[in-house]
Amino acid sequence: LTATARQILDRQPEHQLDLGMAAYETPAELSADLDAVDASLRANGSAVLADDRLARLREAVRVFGFHLSGLDMRQNSDMHEEVIAELLAWAGVHADYASLSEDERVELLAAELATRRPLIGPGAQLSELARKELDIVFAAARAVHVFGPAAVPNYIISMCQSVSDMLEAALLLKEAGLLDVSGEHPYAPVGIVPLFETIDDLQRGSAIMQAALDLPLYRAIVAARGDSHEVMLGYSDSNKDGGYLAANWALYRAELDLVEMARAAGIRLRLFHGRGGTVGRGGGPSYDAILAQPPGAVNGSLRITEQGEVIGAKYAEPRLAHRNLETLLAATLEATLLDVEGLGDEAEPAYAVLDDLAARAQRAYAELVHDTPGFVDYFKASTPVSEIGALNIGSRPTSRKPTTSISDLRAIPWVLAWSQSRVMLPGWYGTGTAFEDYIGDGPDSDARLEVLQDLYRRWPFFATVLSNMAQVLAKSDLGLAARYSELVDDVELRHRVFDKIVDEHARTIRMHKLITGQDDLLADNPALARSVFNRFPYLEPLNHLQVELLRRYRSGDEDELVQRGILLTMSGLATALRNSG
Q1: What is the distance between the alpha carbons of residues 176 and 171, in angstroms, rounded to a whole number?
Q2: What pLDDT is attached to residue 193?
Q3: By mean pLDDT, which of 130-139, 414-423, 485-494 is the weakest?
Q4: What 3-state DSSP class applies to 406?
Q5: What order of strands is seen across the sheet that includes strand 154-158?
Q6: Cα separations in angstroms, 14 against 11, 20, 24, 428, 481
Q7: Which residues are within 8 A (CB) of 545 and not within 5 positions of it... i.e. 6 or more apart?
Q8: CA 265 to chain centre
Q9: pLDDT confidence of 280, banded at 50, 70, 90?
Q10: Which of 180-189, 231-240, 460-469 is least confident?
């Protein structure tokens, strides 16, 4: 233990006993010794010790190993491309990697991965970006060497859009000594996890995975990891890309396709759900969300992210944490063992209906967000999104790049800004139009409405989508949103955008009532209804105050109290609205 502690700690162990022995290679070796102690205690009348202090120690070793907690690496695919291009140019492999087609990139990367030769040596002259990225991967390699593979289990590729995006990450791992498929026994301690985020990428996700698995070299990597593969699904950017209903359906379809792909390929698939705290980023009751997964998507295990204020709300107190973890476990068991979808032979017709609805919703959403002239200007003026970045309250910049494009804006400030202004747009916009257009006003409108009502009664996915949407609509307040719209100086732009939002808001509430038969948006969650409406009287002054403070701050008032006031109103609103960002 002393030898192991010296190897993995930054300080000398308090109670050290140096007998010149080697450190434990793995936590399993320590567990084996503790098992021997346990057997001896029980055989010699000291089971009380084995059941108390020793049992806790054995459990701690089993759970935490030498690493305490695994940390995933994650980087954007564009960054990988830039770094790999620089490494290939420095090594003299190819001077202009960015100019290659996808097939040419895959061929070149596969050839490099098949060799043991590194691309660079210690004296390589690299850009600050390349050096920084390599330093991170080399630090991960040191952690895996010292603490074991559980220390850095995965490398997640944000905005993964192709097989080459996956192979670029693999080549970085190889450069750090974390991947070797050149020999008879491949070495791959870190899993490569593609993250499919936009609507288009979700639709192509299974094809990208299949193309990667068709490469013998990549199949060898997966085989080295026990024929298991993890795929991450992006809730936030898919919603920002295509709107609430289109994103939810794209995720469901993507899961169905990935499950079928994994079954055909003979691998075990684990889906990693990148859910945020708010409905616009995949939030909502976790139990219902798991039961709303398509058939085969859970299959004994899944990963989910818990973010922001959700962590404190669900896990800050031990008994509450136990209850929430138990809920997740129960839902995972039910989704694995039972037919929770409940559609049977009628699944395909139901899928066709959602295909139709999602396409209509995406068009309605795009017409406002992507196609309305001046929409970005309206968003920036009518919400505190600029102040979120300027006042330094986020973990990352509000935009990935210095542009005015919605696609480059990070999803968290996008959702948080709309919730602060009480529009809650990412959680509902486009859905009302989709339902109204689908039902229509022709002779078959009653039959189409009955189809939706039947799906709401029988299909957990559809019911959950409507329930989460209703929760967001209940927290919206377009009277207050109108005050925020007054921050837009261009009157014509203000009316052009806000009038569309008002119309769609009324339409969505009307369609929800028509399909569910419920006048009250929170009829299926009375506890939340009581909680929300008890808080509302305290929120309205915060919104009015925030509008006035934003007006002062933007007019050049640099008083520290004004900035602090904006932060306090943001914090108060986010805390009260709960799943707000």
Answers
A1: 9
A2: 97
A3: 414-423
A4: helix
A5: 73-76, 154-158, 191-196, 228-234, 268-274, 303-304
A6: 9, 17, 18, 57, 59
A7: 565, 569
A8: 25
A9: low
A10: 231-240
Contact status, residue 278 vs residue 427, Cβ threshold 8 Å: yes
pLDDT value at 396 more than 70: no
| C-alpha distance from residue 153 to each of 100, 140, 144, 150, 174 (Å) | 31, 10, 9, 5, 15
User: What was the pLDDT predicted at 579?
Assistant: 58
pLDDT digits (tens, 9 = 90+) for 334-375: 999 988 888 888 899 999 999 999 999 999 999 999 999 999
Average the pLDDT over 393-408 and give the result: 58
Share of the chain above pLDDT 70, in %: 94
From the list 382, 416, 581, the residue with the least C-alpha distance to 496 is 382
Type of residue numbered 95 = A
Q: What would you report as the CA-atom Rg of the chain, rounded to the nearest whole angstrom?
A: 27
How many CA atoms lie within 13 Å of 410's alpha carbon, on the beta-carbon side?
Answer: 20
Are the C-beta atoms of residues 431 and 473 closer than 8 Å to each other? no
Residues 6+ apart with CB under 8 A from 493: 374, 377, 378
Start-to-end C-alpha separation, the chain: 45
* Of the candidates 374, 470, 473, 489, the residue with the CA atom closest to the CA atom of residue 423: 473
Band of the pLDDT at 269, cuts 50, 70, 90? very high
Q: With the C-alpha atoms ordered 249, 252, 253, 258, is the resulting torsion angle positive or negative?
A: positive
CA distance 573 to 535: 10
193 phi and psi, to 5 degrees? -120, 105
User: Which residues are bridge partners to 154 per DSSP?
Assistant: 191
Please report, for residues 2, 113, 464, the alpha-carbon distance to residue 23 in angstroms, rounded to integers and kept in the order given: 8, 32, 52
3-state secondary structure of 92: coil
In the numeric block, the tokens 């979808």 are attached to 341
pLDDT at position 285 is: 72
160 secondary structure, DSSP code:
-
Supply the CATH classification number for the domain 73-337. Answer: 3.20.20
Write the CA distances from 147 to 4, 8, 64, integer angstroms. Answer: 10, 7, 10
Report which of residues 297 and 30 the model is more confident about: 30
Please state whether beta strands 191-196 and 228-234 pair in parallel, antiparallel, or not at all (unpaired).
parallel
Please answer whether residues 424 and 411 qualify as being in contact, where contact means their C-beta atoms are separated by less than 8 angstroms.
Answer: no
Q: Which residues pair with 192 in a beta bridge?
A: 155
Mean pLDDT on 137-143: 96
Domain limits of the chain?
2-64, 73-337, 344-577
Secondary structure class of 393 (helix, strand, coil): coil
DSSP string, 455-511: HHHH-HHHHHHHHHHHHHHHH--HHHHHHHHTT-S-HHHHHHHHHHHHHHHHHHHHH
Angle in degrees, 0-180, between the axes of helices 431-439 and 347-369, rounded to the nearest 10: 130
Dihedral of CA atoms 509, 511, 514, 520 in degrees, nearest 10, equals -20
Greatest alpha-carbon pair distance for the chain in Å reads 88
State residue 283's pLDDT score. Answer: 60
Q: Which runs of consecutive H residues, i.e. helices, occur in 395-444? A: 411-420, 431-439
Q: Which two tokens stand for residue 424?
A: 């809650």
Average pLDDT, the chain: 89
Q: How confident is the model at residue 339, as a pLDDT? A: 85
Residue 304 CB coordination number (10 Å): 16
DSSP structure class, residue 187: B
Angle at 146 between CA 143 and CA 152, to 5 degrees: 30
